[in-house]
Write a structure and sequence with these properties.
Elements (H helix, E strand, L loop, with lengths): L4 E6 L6 H14 L3 E4 L17 H11 L4 E4 L2 E2 L5 H14 L6 E4 L4 H7 L6 H21 L10 E4 L6 H8 L2 E5 L2 H18 L7 E6 L13 H6 L4 E6 L6 H11 L1
Parallel strand pairs: 1-2, 1-9, 2-3, 4-5, 5-6, 6-7, 7-8, 8-9
Helix pairs in contact: 2-3, 3-5, 6-7
């Protein structure tokens, strides 16, 4: 089996700052390639009333607590921050991390975040239009900031919309993330290749990542396996882990990745 990258997404719900810090320091010591959290304001897996923490504040703490993994959000909601400000936030955290930030971004989808925090939810189309505008502003601001990011600070776009999102990946992104099952991943990856051809982009220049939720090493969700995604071109497997942050499955996949 070819070597591949392994990331972990830590769900910042039903937990404490102490436990989160322990989790990302442990993940970094294990040698994961990336550590991320999501960019939501409420828990995703209950009625929204349990404990929860904001994403970019956590990534800032990650920058100081870890040493080797890339860090970022999987993914930032474009709607929540002025894009120039987001570029500046990410650049500053990149310096705190000594060049390890990736800028994950998407158009947003969770209505409660918008409604309770006073953002206009709009439509899927309007949010995608805003994302396109935001990506252009982010890249423009990054070119103007002084000092510039220390690292490359790759842009990762999350999503699978065939008409707009995957076009934006082809035009702007260094990496792309979506979910399974394998037949969904294969189809969306093919559409991305087609967009790359249309816009004159080498499809191999975009890192392919996939988010999975593995409760045990032996019994994945559904019938898919890690090998399925690798055979379809995935270069990084991102494992979602919630409190109490049991890394048994993560360690199992790390062993697979290292051969």
């Amino acid at each position: 089996m070819a070597r591949f990258k392994v990331g972990v997404q830590l769900y910042q719900q039903h937990t404490t700052i102490r436990d989160l810090r322990y989790a990302w320091q442990k993940a970094d010591a294990l040698g994961v390639d990336s550590i991320s959290c999501w960019d939501h304001f409420f828990p995703l897996f209950d009625d929204g009333s349990e404990s929860h923490f904001e994403g970019w504040s956590l990534v800032t703490a990650m920058a100081m607590d870890t040493e080797q993994a890339q860090i970022g959000t999987m993914v930032t909601c474009n709607s929540y921050r002025n894009p120039d400000l987001l570029a500046d936030i990410a650049r500053t955290v990149d310096h705190l991390s000594n060049g390890r930030v990736f800028l994950g971004i998407g158009s947003g989808w969770f209505a409660q975040d918008y409604e309770e925090y006073g953002y206009e939810f709009g439509t899927a189309g309007s949010r995608l239009k805003d994302l396109e505008w935001g990506l252009e502003r982010i890249k423009s601001r990054l070119a103007k900031l002084n000092p510039k990011p220390i690292g490359k600070m790759p842009i990762l776009i999350g999503g699978a919309g065939e008409k707009v999102t995957l076009r934006l990946v082809a035009e702007h992104a260094d990496a792309w993330n979506t979910f399974g099952p394998p037949e969904h991943y294969a189809h969306k990856s093919q559409i991305l290749d087609e967009w790359c051809e249309k816009v004159g982009r080498d499809p191999k220049s975009i890192e392919r990542t996939v988010s999975v939720n593995r409760r045990t090493p032996i019994e994945p969700d559904g019938d898919d396996t890690i090998e399925d995604y690798l055979a379809l071109g995935a270069q990084q497997i991102i494992v979602g882990v919630g409190h109490p942050f049991d890394f048994t499955t993560l360690e199992y996949i790390l062993k697979m990745a290292r051969g």
